[in-house]
Amino acid sequence: MKRKIAVLGHWKDHPNIGSGYGKCCAYISPYLKSQGYDIALVAAVGQKYFRNYWNDIYVFPGTDENVYAENVVLDYLKEWRKKTNKPTILFQQADVWPLQAIPALAKQGQITWVLYPAIDYDPIPQEVIDKLYGVFRIIPMCEWVEKLLRPKLGDKIMKYVHHGVDERIYYPFAETKEKIQNKYPETMKSLGFEKDTVNISIVAANQIFRKPWDVMFQIVKTFRERNTDLKVRLYCHTLADVMHGGWNLIELRKLFQLEDITVFSDPTLTVTGGYPETVLSRIYNVSDVVLYTTCGEGFGLIVIESMACGTPVLTTDFSATSELVEPFPEFKVKVGSYFLIPRPLLVKANPDVDDAVEKMTKIVNSNPNYYLKKCSQYADKKFAWKKILPEWKKRFEDIEKAFDEECVEIPKSIKKSKELRL
User: Fold this and answer.
1) Which of 34, 178, 314, 351 is spaced 20 to 30 A from 298 at the CA atom?
2) Nearest 5°: phi and psi at 277?
């Protein structure tokens, strides 16, 4: 299958990194290659100073100078174009507001920029919209973002494509929650879980302004106080220290009097990839409920992974996650308050503690096997990669057609005069 364009895929993270960026790269890039596209990757995070191959896909490294490798991306595009002898698009999954050079290159016509943006705030500031005027096409991650962007950018906005979940990894491991927990006693023990307790997991990065760990700990504390007849255990899959710029979760745990029930993931294993997806799926499986009431998400991969395993997940009724749990209104925690991030001016949300506690109480007092079946069936039907990947083929074929219709080669004299000095 001969394609007219080549692709430089820029998911920011290396495909071996277990973030939403890394997982999307790991599934989408090999699929595009299988559909005939000459694709290389930019691993701005996770690979520095050297080049190599990942799954027979060439990988350009990141740099210390810029977390998005903006200072070298134009050189990489030129090199990949020369290698493939095809017009090359930059396909990027990224938050928009930190970008500087890439939007400028697109506005100058130096690159063909196709964006899969992570937008976790509402409204979208004009400062962010201004950076998108040079984009060739935008593929939103969710319907919510599509509706926000279409009035601003018109036909540049394509139909949204959700993230996917690997149905071969994320699924219920037995017919009942009790059987699952009996099947993995060592996993239960390592997480601090017991059979006769309410086992809560928080799977989230330790990031200030994005993950409200103080509010999530308050939710667990309040749930405990209002359900004194229940034994509660909490597992936090995150880095607990402040080395990476997040909360001091050790102190926060103490502040909210959760020391006796809380276990954190092993920091060394967390950093070095010691929790592969198979282990993460086991964590979701043995949990009674996952708490993911964040301040806003560009998508919310934890939500669909948890549901695919048949485990209920509480999430803030704000940004992309609202539509992910649409059939389950009891999973949506209303917004308790909004707050602002100053540069750029972004509106984020905190979950309402009382509403979260009320809904968690309802979930843990329901039949867990109801959710085991309903959540997993819904996730498999809606988000399985086997359903999502063909949508990527459609979008790239539409991009290829639009590129053929709209783009012309820039004469070398003009190209040279317009070259941006990085």
Assistant:
1) 34
2) -60, -30
